[in-house]
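In this supplementary section we document a worked example of the pipeline. Step one takes a protein sequence of length 190 as its only input; no multiple sequence alignment statistics are reported here. Step two produces a three-dimensional model, which step three serialises into structure tokens for compact storage. The input and output of this example are shown verbatim.
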Amino acid sequence: MGIEKKTDFLVMNELISKGFTNANFDVVQEGVYVWPEVSGFNKIKELFKNASKSRTGNFGKPEFIIYDEVKEVLIIIENKRDVSKHIYENDIQDKVSEYAVNGALWYAQHTKDSYDTVAIAISGTKLDNLKIDSYAWKKGVDTFSNLNIHEILTLDQYRDLVFESSNIESSVDQQLSLLEEARQINEFMH
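The serialised model returned by step three reads:
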């Protein structure tokens, strides 16, 4: 079985159980589309045209793309088989091809100017050891919010979270900015 196929199957089963799609990728909720790797809509496909995680300018392909046409929310899922490859915390914009969180946010960065986006990173090969992190990136906003959600939710729950995300914990970038300001004030006071 391929490197991430087992994880893909686990995620697919979760998407089916949460009512996003069925095993044929049929539309089971009106206006909700699920695709493996490549969107069926040209407008969305265009956003990934230069989003290769290897930064070659080629096409980017997250494991799953979910589009909620009703609320214009895009959900991007990026998987890694190995839980040790879940997040590279030293620089969230680095190692996007190697780590699930970094890759999910990389793709969300390419869609955030057109859609409210939920970026979901999933690592592991067994249901009992899956690591899941979810982030919201509001349309047109420069940074993301950590949703602190560690499971796959229903579409209605994601819809609610995206519109509440401005009240959720600050992003890593905002926290780092505040730490830098505190450091500068501390230096000034000394």
